[in-house]
Structure formats: structure tokens, C-alpha cells
Amino acid sequence: MSVALLIITHGEVGRVLLDSADAMLSGTPLQAEVVAVSNQCNPDAVAQQVDEAIMRLKQGDGVLVLTDIYGATPSNIAMKFQNDEARVMVVSGINLPMLIRVLNYPDLSIEQLLEKALSGGRDGVFRCQREED
User: Which end of the chain is more exposed for a tag (fewer CB within 10 A), N or C?
Assistant: First the structure.
């Protein structure tokens, strides 16, 4: 058994990130789903989609939920399902380094994957400067 991954973002951001990671890694080692949230969404309908996705994904050792912007609709909906006992944990601020880090460690526990997500998000952001000759 392993942890599953649910990505909840505005528009198709989550789908594009997952597709990019899948191409980079030549596959997705975790069971993963994406829920896209539109500007005109009905939050109750999206919450129903999220609930159904979590029920499908919760066959293993938990579900790690990655969202885009903390405090926005995707993370607010995800937080309704945050439950340490039920093994559903939420991290906001998804970026490609975070996602790649999570997918590179498919055998870790949900707590360890949560830490990998946080470190991938933090450690994957750099100021790029040209080296002087």
C-alpha cells in the first residue's frame, strides 16, 4: 500500500503540473487525481467532487492533498477534509519541485511525504543570477 495524491487547483494548473511531472519521471508512481476549480464554481459541488476523489483514493495509507494558494477556494475546500486520524493531510503552495519531490518518494509514509512536499516547495525556489566571468 502507498499514499495517494489529490491535487486541487484553480483551472488546469494541477493537471498541467501532474502531466509535466509524469513526463519528467516517465510515469506517476503514486495513484493521483486532479480536481480543477473554476472561477464560477459552486463550492459545494467541488467539495462533493473532492469527497468522492478522496473516497476513491483512500485505499492505501492515506491521501496527501496539494493545493495552490493558501486561503483560496481550493485550499479552503481541501481543509474541510483534513483529518490526521483519517490520514488526509493538506499542503498548499504546490509547485513543480514540490510535486517532483513527492513523486520521487512513493514508499514513504504520509507524514514523511508531507515533509518532502514542504521541503520540495521551499528548496525548489531560487533567485537565478548569471555567473560573472
Answer: C
* Complete DSSP assignment for 16-54: HHHHHHHHHHTS-SS-EEEEEE-TT--HHHHHHHHHHHH
Sheet holding 32-37, edge to edge: 32-37, 4-10, 63-67, 88-92
* Phi-psi domain of 20 (left: phi exceeds 0; alpha: psi -120 through 50; beta: other): alpha
- Which domains does the chain show, CATH number per domain? 4-123 (3.40.50.510)
Query: Cα separation of 79 and 45, whole Å?
Result: 15
Q: Is the pTM of this model over 0.90?
A: yes
Q: Please report which confidence band the pLDDT of residue 85 belongs to, taking 50, 70 and 90 as the band edges.
A: confident
DSSP for residue 133 = -
Going 21 to 53 to 31 to 104, the CA torsion angle's sign is positive
Report the alpha-carbon distance of residue 14 to residue 96 in Å, rounded: 10
Grid coordinates given for 91: 499542503
